[in-house]
Amino acid sequence: MPAFRPPEPDRLLRDHLSLFTVDLKDIPLIDLACGDGHNGLFLASKGFSVILADRSEDSLKQAGESASFLGVTAALRQIDLEKQDSNPFANDLFSAVLVFRYLYRPLIPHIRNSVRRGGLIMYETFTTEQAQFGRPKNPEHLLRAGELTSWFQDWEIIHSFEGIKENPQKAVAQIICRKP
After folding, report:
1. DSSP calls for 24-85
2. What share of the chain is helix, strand, coil (3-state, %, to 5)?
3. If both were cysteines, with which of 44, 85, 137, 167 could 50 make a disulfide (CB 3.0 to 4.6 Å apart)?
4. How many alpha carbons fall within 13 Å on the CB side of residue 137?
């Protein structure tokens, strides 16, 4: 049986790991729509307190198994991020919020409000240009030009990108920003 090899964290996280400093370890960070949890588990392996949040019970089970194999701890939270007229973070405050390949526009104000002062948002998802390369194609799941940056224009923007990434080709917008 081959040895367990966890998925690599997304490149955006690897390239900007230095932003996750010791002052962000005092309260948990959350990996939203985490899927298999590879990004959050990577940060858990670096000593961060991590909550992995997803609607899918199967994804969270896989993330929990990966955490066990890695010998790290992460809280698992099954949550419907798209529940109408609901703030899934009403009583929560996070040191950082990670979002990769997920978009639900009504959630943005709640994400903004759930980050503590000095905390980070790292967000990467597909733009409308993605339709030429494949899924997703639904405009509800694709960012319009400049949309991601506009949501955080009053924050300290540390990194911003919008365009085509190679290997594989995909159209994405990225932002890393710090709450003032």
Report:
1. GSSS-EEEET-TT-HHHHHHHTTT--EEEEES-HHHHHHHHHHHHHHT---EEEE--TT-TT
2. 30, 30, 40
3. 44
4. 5
**Phi, psi for 151 (deg, rounded to 5):** -70, -25
Query: For 113-131, what is the mean pLDDT?
Result: 95
**What pLDDT score does 168 carry?**
85
Q: Is the pTM for the entire model greater than 0.85?
A: yes
Closest of 43, 31, 160, 158 to residue 102, by C-alpha: 31
- How does pLDDT run across 34-63, given as a tens digit for each residue? 999 999 999 999 999 999 999 999 999 999
Domains defined for the chain, CATH in brackets: 11-178 (3.40.50.150)
Question: Would the pLDDT of 66 be above 60?
Answer: yes
For the cut 90, the answer to whether the pLDDT of residue 4 exceeds it is: no
98 with 74: CB under 8 angstroms?
no
Separation CA 115–CA 123 (nearest Å): 13
Cβ(161)–Cβ(176) below 8 Å: no
94: helix, strand or coil: strand
Question: CB of 96 within 8 A of CB of 23?
Answer: no
Task: Give the CA radius of gyration of the chain.
Answer: 16
